[in-house]
Amino acid sequence: MGLMDILQNALAANSGSGGADGATAEQHFDQAAQHASTDELGAGLAGAMRSDQTPPFGEMVGKLFGQSSSAQQAGVLNQILATLGPVAASAIAGGALGRILSPGQTQVTPAQASALSPAQVTEIAAHAEQAQPGIVDQVSQFYAQHSGLIKMLGSAALMVTLAKMKENATTRG
Predict the structure, then answer these.
(1) Which of these, 3, 28, 38, 78, is most buried using a 10 Å CB contact count?
(2) Could you give the CA distance from residue 125 to residue 105 in angstroms, rounded to a whole number?
(3) Quick check: 124 and 132 in contact, CB under 8 A?
(4) Over 90: is that where the pLDDT of 10 sits?
(5) Cα distance between residue 6 and residue 4, in whole Å
(6) Is the separation of the CB atoms in 8 and 1 below 8 Å?
(7) pLDDT recorded at residue 11
(8) Average pLDDT, integer, range 44-51
(9) pLDDT at 12
(10) pLDDT band of 43, cuts 50, 70, 90
(11) How many other C-beta atoms are found inside a 10 Å radius of the C-beta of residue 64?
């Protein structure tokens, strides 16, 4: 069974039932994630993060951050730094990121990342999206490499991610 079949089956199974329950959505997502490339998964997640059917981008990133290891937390913050640049990133969200960085430092360490709260990262991500809308794609590609975390977003976000993956595959194909 190919990725498109998996996506069609997942979406069909949940279309008439009033939505997927958590376990079913996770099963469908796991199956799709095993067959999808990181790029396909990242594009689907980016679509979900931009969707009006899911919480705002900043909230989703804050939730993922809260469930991440300190190394993953540092990774996503470094993705934001790389996209915005250290000076711009340090200034956003009341300077929360700037307060943990030493002068001239361009990478966040896991220890520094773990000093930030999910609420602070929600604010950082929301401001980053306003400053650079392409950050959604960058952060989504980062989390696509850690697909187990994506399940923490809940069944609605998983189903939107699968729908966006199908939409992207149909558009390309």
Answers:
(1) 28
(2) 19
(3) no
(4) no
(5) 5
(6) no
(7) 83
(8) 96
(9) 82
(10) very high
(11) 25
For the chain, the residue count is 173
- 93 CB neighbour count, 10 Å cutoff: 21
Nearest to 58 by CA among 154, 128, 150, 159: 128
| For residue 15, pLDDT beyond 90 | no
- Dist CA 26 CA 146 (whole Å): 14
- Per domain, the residue ranges of the chain are 3-172
SS (H, E, C) 66-120: HHCCHHHHHHHHHHHHHHHCHHHHHHCHHHHHHHHCCCCCCCCCHHHHCCCCHHH
The answer to whether 31 and 128 have CB atoms below 8 angstroms apart is: no
The letter for the amino acid at 80 is I
Please say if the pLDDT value at position 55 is more than 90. yes
